[in-house]
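To whoever is covering the structure queue this week,

Two jobs came back overnight. Logging them here so there's a record in the thread.

Job A:
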Amino acid sequence: MNRRLALLALPALAACSVLPERPYVEVRRFPLTPARDPAAPMPARSGRRRVLLVRLMRAAPGQDSRGLRSLRPDGTEAIDYYAEWSAPPAELAEEALRRWLSSGGLFGAVVSPGTRARADLVLETELTALLADLGAGQARAGLSAVLLREGEGGPSLLTQLAVTGTAPIPPGPRGPEVLAAAMTEAFAAALGALERGIAVHS
């Protein structure tokens, strides 16, 4: 009899669950597709159409998360797990870097590791920052790079570069689409600074 009562009470217990129901939140994903400023001057082209090899971009500590990163006014960092980049940031940044340098005309070709083309120069990069600084009201992107010249005696160092790009965060609601757009604009500024540095030292 007691066993039968216990079995009958199970549906009632299930209906009175103390666990709250969590609404489903869809994850939003954003590309990292920086665009050149049409008004910005293009880098000076070299008379020799050199080949640049761009190696895989590394991610600095803290830059491997796909969630959009922001810096609160009190200086603490936050990662949005419901708004993220469409791929790991360093992967997107590397692909954007290749497209940027290819379209700039500074080199005859921009190639990837594994190519059969003989490279004149080699670029090694690291993504050091990609975040929205809410206290400062701006997004920030950072890159560090090493430019090498390939020669018969092996590679030789041409220069080391560390660049930063910023972009304002528009006033008003700061949804993830606004922050992602500002970070993309900041990354475009960082790419432009890196390209100018390469042009000077290559």
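Job B:
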Amino acid sequence: MRVAKTDIIAGLPAPVARSLVRLFRGRPAGRRLADRLLHDNGVDDLDPVFSAMEVAGYLERIDENDGQIWWEATTSGNALAMASFGKPISRKTADRLVTGLVDRARAYNADPGKPLFIDKLRIFGSYLQPDVDPLGDVDVELTYGWRSYGPKAITDYAKASGKYFSDVMDDIFWPEKELLQHLRNRSAALNITVEDIDLLTVESAVVYTIDDDANALPPPHEKRLVGRN
């Protein structure tokens, strides 16, 4: 997904709307999480903002905790969270990005120190249309699972990264964040989602699967995929 910085999304400037859904991507939270972001951008009344984002389909109410409504980014919200403000790319560049993406997936799955495994990478969107050149970005679906799981193992892995985490939730979500960073390799043109793209499109192409990677460490016998089982 590619948008312009000058776009208005659900009443918000596109950069603010993108930052907002990023706060609720992959984990539910109360809207107080957005207080600082919206206040810094001149918004003091959160009710109209969250209502507009809900109507537009970017955020949804998923739970109530002690009387407080929790929110999470929808599929469209996750796409917005990964939206790029960069320039279009050539098909030649897109081909190079896909090749590098697959190479990094192979390297990750061959590393015995990683707590996750990449199950599959599927390409969708404009990259599958050979007559489209240039492209906005390369859309990729990632499915993955845990090799080992447990609060202590995750915390130890996060601490071993040498990074500072101000919140225990940041500890817990570090392996997933690290995986996405590894696959993107700082490229703003790789739009990677963990949403089930079968809900969005019938056209996709598998570019990597662990089952066909002879050098990958085998996944657990019971291959449970995050968000898919």
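Note for Job B: The first strand starts at residue 8 and ends at 9.

Please reply-all if you pick these up so we don't duplicate work.
Q.
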